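If you are new to this repository, start here. Below is one unmodified record pulled from the training split, so you can see the exact layout before writing a loader.
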Amino acid sequence: MPTVTISGRALHYEERGSGTPLLLLHGFPFSAESYWPQLDAPPKGVRLIVPDHRGFGQSAPVPGVSTMEALADDALALLDALAIPQAVVGGVSMGGYVAIALTRRDPGRVKALLLIDTQASADDEAGKARREQVAKDVEANGVGPLAESMLPKLLSPNTAPEVKARVDAMMRRQSPQAVAAASRGMATRTDGKDILSRFGGPCLVVVGELDVITPVEKAKALAGIVPQAQLAIVPGAGHLPNLEAPRAFEKATGAFLSAL
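And here is the target side for that same chain:
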């Protein structure tokens, strides 16, 4: 996995293919590995770039809260290091929050948006309290109990056992400090409806049909915010359709990416 240096620390990323740059940002609490089907078989005509967020995977940690803006700044620094002036920017769940924050930071860098099982709304007070409790629990008990509680919500009952096992193992490998910092960072995120309503580029909103975390109704609401948004529902998938149903996911995203 190649590395760039940002403010004296290592940011690791995966890169595959050639063509239109596609920056994909991973969800919580994962790493770049969470795009393994797409990394194994990148879309045609696409230069796929998938970083590990700070502290996750092989990227170096940073003290303090990992706000969505900080993760977006890391992603922009990666594009700078790779001399990429503009990219399709996408993300699953928390990665979608980062994609929205990046769009707010520097909309000119965003050729198009690919928002996967995510939402534009900020957390309410109860949601913020849950994020803080997650952070405290992970700091006290490690990532294992969080992985155990999250796995049934992340994946549909249709998911292959080997995919469930790999997702579970990936979560358990993450640093408790990074997971806590990101949980607190998600609690601080701002509402993204204003920037999305002004985004003038193409946008595809993808959602798993059986997602219980950000269900289809939220995806429809998200698509209704962005002027040029399309909606794609992946049948039989939960919160991670790119892993649960990679072929259906690629079919849903392929035409969108080809048109760019």
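Two things worth knowing about this chain: The chain has one domain: 3-259. Strands lie at 3-6, 9-16, 20-25, 46-51, 87-92, 110-116, 203-208, 229-234.
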